[in-house]
Amino acid sequence: MSRPSSTSGHTQVTPTVPPAVHALASPTPLLIDAQLPGYLVPSVLSLLRDSAAHVVRQKRLAEDALRAEGLLPSTGAGTDVNGNGNGKGKGRAAEDDEAELIEGEMIKRVERIGLMVGGYIAEKLTLARPPLASHLDIIKFICKDLFLYVYSKQIDNLRTNHRGVFVLQSHAFPPLVPLSSYRGSAADMEAAKAHLVFPQALVQGALARLGMPASVTAETSGLPQCTFQIRTVKASNAPTSATNTPAVPSSGTPVPSAGPGLPASASTGLGIAGT
Amino acid sequence: MSAGGKQYKAIGDDNWKRTDKVNAELFTLTYGALVVQLIKDYEDYGQVNKQLDKMGYNIGTRLIEDFLARTGMGRCQTFAETAEVISKVAFKTFLNISPTVTFPPPTAPSNPSLPTPSEFTLIFDENPLAEFAELPRDAREGGLWFSNVLAGVIRGALEMIQMQVEARFVSDVLRGDETTELHVRLVRLLEEEQPENDE
Fold first, then answer.
1. Number of other CB atoms surrounding residue A127 within 10 Å
2. Mind listing the GO biological process terms from this record (chain B) (predicted)?
3. Is the minimum CB–CB distance between B62 and chain A shorter than 8 Å?
4. Residue A255: which of A272, A238, A241, A242 has the closest Cα?
């Protein structure tokens, strides 16, 4: 079959390569027990949560130190008069903010890893084949080859509206299969969310590497089922990760906004009225 | 290889044949990316080592059950047997590698209440975790043990079967050493009780 390749105008010819060289290019893969990734990913999640917590706290400490030295504008109702006068009122809200921040940081990290791993796997699996022509081909590759490679299981159901939206369904998605919570199905969903960040980022990274940037959302309507929604990005960029800026409570006194360079995390301390 | 050794090797090989396998790349990629992220976050190689060990401990406490269920191995009579089982059956079953076991002369004065030998060293001639990894000089000099999760796994798994051990790497080819060696020392035998939850 002759198909113009992207680099040359010639028809594609299967290269005749001595088997020894071919073996070098595709060495026998190292195999490990299939259960191991299932052990690793949850541990990765909790470890990253801890390290995100560490980073957030360090940042906060550093900011407080800088603020104490007057190098950063003090946060309106904050530490000017009485160092801990505001401490109590701020305590509860700051803790929640901190928890949110930590979650956000952790999700960012897991996503980063997922994107990288997804891109690498997509590249590796498409090395020896002709390039995938259409978006539909790319999605089919994801459903079959990528999922088979990563989860030993293909996607069960693919639907599309032929206008850039694809819905992939897996009835028994491997990372979700061993999940269950004694607290009932609502808590199951919560737990599932954390475990879906990685697969979501994996698919997104793979798509990006294959030349189809898209936004991916993974949801479950009931363990262990899982649905991926892929929206190809056209002109407008749909935001993918939930980097919510925490809403500033409106009851607070208007606070002079901090300098433009201040990271979002500092702004959570603003606007929290001490009285 | 002693008769027991041969038998364990056979068990390990058999388990490996029967288990479902998956390409190691996904695992090593994720692990490597995790180590990179931890280094960025903590900026302290000692902390990173501790975190990896902690993760390994958590994994190990669960992995041991899987292992015992799958292999149906009974209780080991001596610590030396434990060492053989770890190297020939456990590592083979999960990672398809067989590190060599050696029993070096004890580093501490031998404790009469403990079985002898009470320490062993695992020598890895291949390490799937470090397959694509290369340490920058900073990490090498900073004391990073890239595969420290393995030490944690051994510690966690053995604690679940009533052995408190200290497991640590003493050398690593990633750091430019000749070999990758993991030293395990039995600290004490635990009573049948709740394991201390220090995580």
1. 9
2. Golgi vesicle transport; macroautophagy
3. yes
4. A272
- The total domain count for chain A is 1
B33 contact residues in A (CB cutoff 8 A): 112-113, 116-117
Domain containing residue A194:
42-250
**Which residue in A has a C-alpha nearest to residue B22's C-alpha?**
A34
ipTM of the complex: 0.76
* Count of Cβ atoms closer than 10 Å to residue A27 Cβ: 7
Joined tokens for residue B178: 């000749």
Alpha-helix residue ranges (DSSP H) falling in chain A: 19-25, 36-68, 87-125, 135-141, 147-151, 185-209, 264-267
B1 touches chain A (CB under 8 A): no
Domains with residue ranges and CATH for chain B: 45-189 (3.30.1380.20)
Write the pLDDT tens digit of every residue in A26-80.
667 778 887 788 788 888 888 888 888 888 888 888 888 888 888 777 654 444 4
B123 — contact with chain A (CB < 8 Å)? Answer: no
Model-level pTM? 0.74
Cβ count near A135 (within 10 Å):
19
Cβ of A30 and B59 within 8 Å?
A: no
CATH code of the domain containing A124: 3.30.1380.20
